[in-house]
From TrEMBL:
InterPro entries: Apaf_helical, LRR_dom_sf, LRR_R13L1-DRL21, NB-ARC, P-loop_NTPase, Rx_N, WH-like_DNA-bd_sf, WHD_DRP. The keyword DNA damage does not apply. This is Disease resistance RPP13-like protein 1. It holds the Pfam family Rx_N. Residues 13-102 form the Disease resistance N-terminal domain. Residues 711-836 form the R13L1/DRL21-like LRR repeat region domain. It comes from the Eukaryota.
Amino acid sequence: MVVIAEIFLTAFFTVLLEKLASGDLFNLALPKGICSQLQTWTSKLQLIEAVLSDAEEKQITAKSVNMWLQQLQDLAYDLDDLLDELATEALRRKLMMAQPTQASNPSMFRILIPACCSTNLTPRAVQFDLNISSEIDSITERLQDLLKQKSDLNLMSDHLGGTRSRRTGDERPSSTSLVNEYSGFYGREKDKQAILAQMCLGSESSSNCRFSVIPIVGMGGIGKTTLAQQIYNEVKNSFDLKAWICVSNEFDEFAITERIYKQISSESCEFKDLENVQVKLREIISKKKFLLILDDVWNEKYGKWDVLSRPFQAGAPGSIVIVTTRNVSVASIMRSVPDYHLDELENEEICSILAHHARGWQNFDARPGFKETGEAIAKKCKGLPLAAKSLGGLLRTKENPSEWKDILNSKIWDLPAENNDILPVLRLSYHHLPSHLKRLFAYCSLFPKDYEFDKHELVLLWMAEGFLRPSETHREMEDVGFQCFDELLSRSFFQRSKTGAESRFVMHDLVNDLARHVAGRVCFRLDDKAESNVQHKKDSFLKARHSSFIRHQYDGSQRFEAFSRVRKLRTFLPLPVFETHSWRFYLTNQVVYDLLPQRHFLRVLSLSGYNILQLPNAIGNLKHLRYLNLSDTRMKQLPETVTELYNLQTLLLWDCRMLTKLPSNIGNLINLRHLGIAGTEQLQEMPVGLCKMASLHTLSKIVLGRGLKVNELRGLSNLRGALSIIGLHSVMDAQDAREANLTCKHGLEELEMVWSSEFDDSRNEMIEKEVIELLKPSTNLRRLEIKHYGGVEFPSWLGDPSFSQLAHISLSDCRHCTSLPSLGHLMSLKKLHISGIEGVKTVGNELCGLGWPHVGDAFPSLETLEFADMVSFRIIRIA
C-alpha cells in the first residue's frame, strides 16, 4: 500500500484571494475583458475554498479527491505566478511614473502608460496584453473544469453544515494504564525517577494548590505514554483515587469528565450535562488524594482546561495530574511545574527494544549473525522507541539475516503500511497543525537528514516564497516567521542542534521523512536517491516548484540537466547555505548564463560559495525573485540589471571579499528588507539612494563619501541588528548626523562608528565631536564600538544610565581623547575594551562615574576589562 502525499491548500487560497482583492492589479493598463475575467476568479475560488476542508480530510481515503487536489495545487501555483507578474508590472509602472527623468527610452515608458492615456501602444505592450490574455484564458478553463469535478466528488461546503470526515490513517491507538509485563522498560529509568521526584515535591507543596500538573513533552513515538504507564503502575497504590484517560484528538470537557467519573466511582454516569457530572465528581474526590493521567492532549485553549479542572480543586493536597503532549503550548496552559522534556534514547537502548520486539532477545550480543545488521537498523530509528518497536514487529517474520539486510537497505517509509505504526503517529502531529504551518513545515523537506539549519535563514526563505503574510496586528513578516518557527519547535518538529549554537536547529530523521511525505512532488531534493533516476519520473518532476541540492566541488551542467524541463521552478537552493570554503566550489557557466536566467519564476536563487566572477545581465529578467544569495563568491560588482528586481526582499553578499561597488540605482529596490554586506572589505564606496529603501531591516554597513552622506539613514527607521557606519571623517556638516536620527532606530542592537585611521590635517576635532554627539543611538543598544574617532572627548551620552542594555563597549585608536567616559553607571556592561587612546595618561574615579558613594558599586556586571596599546598609560588611580 502506497501512502498518498497530503495536500493542504487553505493557507494558499487565503493568499490568492488577498492578491485578487488588491486594487493595484486593476490599475494596470489591461483590456476590460481581462479585468472582468480576473474579477470572476474571486467568486470561483471562494466556491472551491468552501470545500477545501472537506477535501483535505477525505484525500487520504479517496484517491480521486487527492488527484483533484493535485490539479488544484498546480493551478494555485500558476495563478499565483500570474498575479505576481501583474503586480510586478504595476509596481514598475508606479516607479517609472515617479521617475520620469529616467525614462529616456520612450517605448519603455509608454508600455506603462494606462491605455486610456495612449492610443498608440507599442508592439511590446500589445504582446504583453496578448500573453496575459492567453494565460488568463487557460487558467479560467482549468478553474471551470475543477469546479465541475468538485460537484462530481460530492465535497461538502463548511458553511453548508458539512462535517469533516475522520481519517482512519491518522488516528492514534487508544492507550490504557496497563503495561506489557514482558516487553521490558528500556532507557527511561532516569526519566522515571526524575518525575517521581517532582511528584514528591508536589505532595510536599503548600495546600494552596490542591493538585500539581506535571507535563511530559516530546515528539510522537518518543515514549511519553510508556513512561507514564510505568509511573502510574508504580505509584497508584499511594493514591486514594486514580484514573487513566486517553484524550487524543478532541478535548470535550463533558466527555472527559464523564470518563474520569466512571473510572473513579466504578459507576455508570446517568447525568447528561456538564454541571451535574462535575458536581458529582467533585463530591467523590473531595478531600481525597487522586492520581490522574491525561494522555495525548492537544488542547491549546485555556478556557477548556479551566472548566475541566474545576472539580480537581476539591482533592486533597498532593494530588497529581500527569499530562503527556507533543506541544509545549498545551503544557503551558496546564502545568504547575516545569515541563519534563523527553529526549531520544541512546542506541544501546534502541537495540534492546528492537531485539525484544523482533526476536524476544535482550540484545544482539549473543547473535553474531544479526548483530551488525540489527545495530545498523537501530541507528535508523534515531533514538525513537516507536520506530524500534515498529521495525521489530516487521522483523519478527524475517528469520534470515539476509532478510534483515533487505530491510536495512530499504527506506523506512517504504515499509508496508499495515506493519508500520510510525507514519500514522507522526502524521497525526502534522494533521493537528494550522494550515499555514503545514506549508512551512513541508518546505523543510528541502533539507537533507542531519542538516543543521539556521532559524533566521529559514524565515528569510519562507518570506521569499510568499508563505508569510503581515499579521492583523501589523507585525513585521520576519516576526510572524519567528513566531511560526517557535510554534513548530514547540510541537517537536524541530530540535535544537547539539552543537550549542543558539540559532541552529535540526529535524529528527523520521520527522524529515514526514516532511518529504507531506511535501510530495512539490519539493525536490536533487541528491535524494529515491529521485536519482528523474528522467523516468518526468510527469512528477515537471510539477516540482522547489529544489535543493548539496553543493559539490564541481557542479557541471550535466548535473542540472533535468532542471531544463522544469519551467516553473521557484527555488534553486544549494546546501549548506553558508559555511563554504573560500571558492573551492565551481559552477559551470552554462548553468549561470543559460539555465538559471530561463527559470523566470524563481523566487529563491542562491549561488553562495561558488567560484563565480560575474552574473549575466539577464538576471534582471527574474522579476519574481525575492531572495538572492551571492555570499562568498568572487564577484567584484553586480550587473546594473539587479536593480530591476523590484520584488527583491533579501540580497546577501556576505564575505564577498572582492566586491568593490554596488549598482548605482540600488535605491530602486524599494522592497528590499535585508542587505547583507558584512565581510566586504574592498567595498570602499556606496551609491546614493539608500534612503529610498525604507523597508530595510538589515544593513550591515554604510560607507560614507563620494556623495553618500550619513543623512541617508534618515528614512531607514526599520533597521535592526548590527550597523557599521564607516567613513565618518567625511561628514563636514553636523546637521547630516542629526538627520540620520539614530536615536529613533530602536531595532539597532549593535553599532560600530568608524573614522579614518589617518589623523592628518584634514581632520576637524570640533566637527567630529559634534557629529558623534548627534549620532546618539537608541538606548536599546547592546554593543558599541568606536574606532579612530578624532575628537578630544567622548560624547556626553556615552555612559548615560539610560543605556541599561549595553553589554559590550570597545573604544580603540581614539588617540586625541584625553579622558575616558564615565561608564560605571552601565548596569549591564560585561566587556570593556580600551586600546590605542594615547592621550589618556591616568585612569581614576571618572571611569567609575562621579557621585558614586562607593567605588565598589560601579560596574556591577563587568566580567572583562582590557587595556591595550596605551603608550602614555602610567598610573591607575582609583580613590
